[in-house]
Each structure stands twice: as structure tokens, then as C-alpha cells.
């Protein structure tokens, strides 16, 4: 099953897959709402791993690196919304209710999973069912109805966000890696080879790699690459030129930076900067 509907500012998808798809670490320019229905999934966001169960909802902003890890071949079903934050900002201003607080008012990689009271979960499911119907039977005015449904959903999410401030306890393997991930986060322009990290933390590089793969299903190298691309995107968005963005984000080879940026983002850094700055 695959229900998909797209407007200029909203992308809605409800999928059920008998085979688990393959995902690498990724970022979006838009914000993401991820509603989990079924499967055997641990979801990695920045420095946290969230074991998912039915009814869990994750929110991710456009700076948060994330990746689902599939623990078995169980049927996988979820509903995902990507939307441009600019869509919600006029409503936030007009009605003095911050619709983007659950994406912005927290450290990256923390409090991504929202918990709902029973009546809130019922409202949440009803809203997603409404979006399923709208996406499955589009008609005149569907774009508008999808937008109002999203705004209603954002009100519900932010009410839940404000009510629940309990911290998450990470799995043991990720707790051991936490200092390494913190170091990577703040030293992206340094040497971050496995050998350099081994010397920095007195942790065997093979053991470190194995812990990371067990927790995320991917490699430290891929994680560092995507973190550097995310930093380069931010620098370019803030007005930095391509050469400085390359150096400040830890790419020592300019041609490699151009190639990797295009592979991940879909266009070269010069074009990405031009698109942001006109």
C-alpha cells in the first residue's frame, strides 16, 4: 500500500511494506513528522536511538540527521509528513501559538519522540485517517484541506510537547558512544578518522565501529560525512562561500567536497547557495 499526496509545501505519505526498505543517514530541508504503525524498528536521530512501538510519533527539524534501523523482516508501516516551516509561521504569528516549538525549542536530537494521552492519540489517529482520505480521493480544495489538517495536527503535537518533558535513556551501546558523538559534533573540522578517534578516546577502533553499527545499522564514516554535509548546508545558507564552507565543515579535498555534496543534496554546493541567496 502506498498513499501519497504532494502540494508545494506539504508531502504526505502512508506506506505499508512487506519488505523493509534500505535507508542511509539523511537530512531534509523541510521538517518531518513520522508516525509509526508497525515493524521492528529502532530510529536513530543525532545521538539518540528510539525503539519504536505502535503510536509513537517523532518530530525532526531540518538540522537533525536521522535513520531507521530495521531489526527484523516484520511488515513495516508508517505515515510521514514533510512540510516547509514557512507554511506554519503566519498561523503562529496570527494566533500567538508557536506551531513549530516541538521542532525548534529543544536541543537537536533530544525530545524527538512525543507521548500522548489516550484522548490525544485518538485525535491524532483521526487526523491521519482524514489525511489518508484526502490523499486517496483528491478533489478541488484538497490542498487547502490538507493544509488545515496539518495545522490542526501541529497544534496537537505542540500541546503534547509542552506537557511531556521527561528525558530519554539511551541504550547502553549508545551511552558508551555518547562522548565520541559529542566530540564529532564539535570537531567536524578536525581529523575524525577512526585512528584519530581511537587515540582521542583510548577505545579500540574496531570495537567503536562495531558498537556504532549495532546501534545505527551504519558506519561512523557515513555519519561523519552526513554531519559535515549538514554543517556545509548551514554555512552556505548563512552566506558562506563554497571554498570556506568546504574547509570549515572538515573537507580537506575541494573536489571530494563537491562530489559528496552533490551526491547527498542532489545539486552542487554553488547551485545550492545560489538557490538560497537568489
From TrEMBL:
Residues 178-275 form the HTH araC/xylS-type domain. Keywords: DNA-binding, Transcription, Transcription regulation. PROSITE patterns: HTH_ARAC_FAMILY_1 (PS00041), HTH_ARAC_FAMILY_2 (PS01124). It comes from the Bacteria. Pfam families: AraC_binding, HTH_18. InterPro entries: AraC-bd, Homeodomain-like_sf, HTH-like, HTH_AraC, HTH_AraC-typ_CS, RmlC-like_jellyroll. The keyword NADP does not apply. The keyword Transcription applies. One of its GO terms (molecular function) is sequence-specific DNA binding. PANTHER family: ARAC-FAMILY TRANSCRIPTIONAL REGULATOR (PTHR43280:SF34). This is AraC family transcriptional regulator. It comes from Paenibacillus piri.
Amino acid at each position: 500500500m502506498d498513499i501519497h499526496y504532494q502540494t508545494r509545501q506539504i508531502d504526505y505519505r502512508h506506506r505499508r511494506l512487506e519488505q523493509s526498505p534500505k535507508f542511509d543517514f539523511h537530512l531534509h530541508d523541510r521538517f518531518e513528522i513520522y508516525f509509526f504503525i508497525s515493524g521492528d524498528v529502532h530510529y536513530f536521530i543525532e545521538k539518540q536511538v528510539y525503539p519504536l512501538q505502535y503510536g509513537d510519533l517523532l518530530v525532526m527539524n531540518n538540522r537533525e540527521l536521522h535513520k531507521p534501523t530495521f531489526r527484523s523482516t516484520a511488515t513495516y508501516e508508517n505515515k510521514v509528513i514533510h512540510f516547509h516551516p514557512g507554511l506554519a509561521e503566519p498561523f503562529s504569528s496570527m494566533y500567538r501559538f508557536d506551531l513549530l516549538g516541538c521542532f525548534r525549542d529543544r536541543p537537536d536530537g533530544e525530545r524527538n519522540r512525543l507521548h500522548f494521552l489516550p484522548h490525544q492519540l485518538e485525535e491524532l489517529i483521526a487526523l491521519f485517517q482524514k489525511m489518508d482520505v484526502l490523499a486517496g480521493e483528491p478533489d478541488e480544495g484538497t490542498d487547502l484541506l490538507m493544509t488545515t489538517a496539518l495545522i490542526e495536527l501541529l497544534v496537537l503535537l505542540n500541546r503534547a510537547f509542552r506537557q511531556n518533558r521527561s528525558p530519554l535513556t539511551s541504550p547502553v551501546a549508545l551511552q558508551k558512544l555518547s562522548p565520541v558523538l559529542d566530540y564529532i559534533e564539535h570537531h567536524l573540522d578536525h581529523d575524525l578518522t577512526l585512528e584519530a578517534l581511537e587515540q582521542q578516546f583510548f577505545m579500540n577502533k574496531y570495537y567503536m565501529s562495531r558498537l556504532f553499527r549495532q546501534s545505527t545499522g551504519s558506519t561512523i564514516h557515513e555519519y561523519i560525512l552526513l554531519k559535515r554535509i549538514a554543517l556545509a548546508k548551514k554555512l552556505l545558507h548563512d552566506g558562506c562561500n563554497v571554498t570556506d564552507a568546504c574547509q570549515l565543515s572538515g573537507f580537506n579535498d575541494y573536489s571530494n567536497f563537491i562530489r559528496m555534496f552533490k551526491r547527498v543534496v542532489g545539486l552542487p554546493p554553488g547551485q545550492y547557495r545560489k538557490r538560497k541567496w537568489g
